[in-house]
From TrEMBL:
It holds the Pfam family ABC_tran. This is ABC transporter ATP-binding protein. It comes from the Bacteria. Residues 11-254 form the ABC transporter domain. The lineage of its organism: Bacteria, Pseudomonadati, Pseudomonadota, Betaproteobacteria, Burkholderiales. GO terms for molecular function: ATP binding; ATP hydrolysis activity. It comes from Massilia psychrophila. GO terms for cellular component: plasma membrane. Keywords: ATP-binding, Cell membrane, Membrane, Nucleotide-binding, Transport. Transmembrane segments: none annotated.
């Protein structure tokens, strides 16, 4: 028997770059992201973290470089198609249907994942199961008591929990979270962090986070990537990255982030 083969990355970027006029917001970033690993992307304000996320999820087109999902080049693929292919992103709040209930929003996500569709034979037979499944995801984010509330009436924190429920319902191989606890009250934060811990413990998802809060980074990260002025300046295990000179220098002047 030979050695165990190295795991294949699920998501990769190669020299990924975007320019806005003369400004290079993401500059030749190459990285591989693996199933079972939670990577946190950190960096000072304006470093390019959100833009890098947007390039991977397809919200922005790359100026140059490439994005690969399971070895397939998806650089020219739009955001909706990338979601179908398994790149899920929470906290775009635009994903929510404000005039539908909490339960209906999750039910639509379950339905889209199962591709039940609205055909005459499946719609009634599958309905109860869809509702049960949607209820399960609402329980996981502690929103079951608000299942019949209209989304427009939810607090900001509850909307974010709902986004997580929708992300879980889509069961993507790659899960991207933009500052998952931003704008949440202190009692809401542990619900979402516990949930990310649980998903991480299943060890089959590739999880990416953009996060400013260093306590959140320390509690969740298997790996940290540091962006500075659009470039990747450090990448590795949390202890080594946080101790590296380049990170200390990159953060100079913004010590509240470290
Ligand atoms: N659509 C755009 N048009 C022009 N410039 C943009 C656009 N989007 C981002 N930028 C610029 O690109 C740079 C990176 O922005 P980005 O939002 O990715 O940083 P960030 O690291 O996510 O910052 P923060 O931590 O403040 O959210 C910034 O200088 C920003 O002004």
């Amino acid at each position: 028997m030979g050695p165990t083969p190295a795991p294949a990355p699920s998501l990769s970027t190669r020299d990924l770059t975007i320019r806005f006029g003369g400004h290079i917001a993401v500059n030749a970033v190459s990285a591989d992201f693996y199933p079972g690993t939670l990577t946190v992307i950190v960096g000072p304000n304006g470093a390019g973290k959100t833009t890098y996320f947007n390039l991977m999820s397809g919200q922005l087109p790359a100026t140059s470089g490439s994005v690969h999902l399971n070895g397939v080049d998806i650089t020219g693929t739009g955001a909706a198609r990338r979601t179908q292919l398994g790149i899920g992103r929470a906290f775009q709040l635009t994903n929510l249907f404000p005039n539908l209930t909490v339960l209906e929003n999750v039910r639509l996500a379950v339905q889209s994942h199962q591709r039940v569709g609205m055909n005459m034979f499946s719609v009634w037979s599958g309905h109860k199961e869809l509702i049960e499944r949607a209820g399960h995801y609402l329980e996981r984010v502690a929103l079951q008591t608000k299942r019949d509330a209209r989304v427009a009436a939810l607090s900001h924190g509850d909307k974010r929990k709902l986004e997580v429920a929708i992300l879980l319902a889509l069961e993507p191989a790659v899960m991207m979270f933009d500052e998952p606890t931003a704008g949440m009250s202190v009692d809401e934060v542990p619900v979402v962090l516990d949930l990310i811990h649980q998903v991480k413990a299943e060890r089959n998802k590739t999880i990416l986070l953009v996060e400013h809060k260093m306590d959140v980074v320390r509690s969740l990260a298997d790996r940290i990537i540091v962006l500075h002025n659009g470039a990747l300046v450090a990448d590795g295990n949390p202890a080594a990255v946080m101790a590296s000179q380049i990170v200390q220098e990159a953060y100079l002047g913004t010590p509240e982030h470290v």
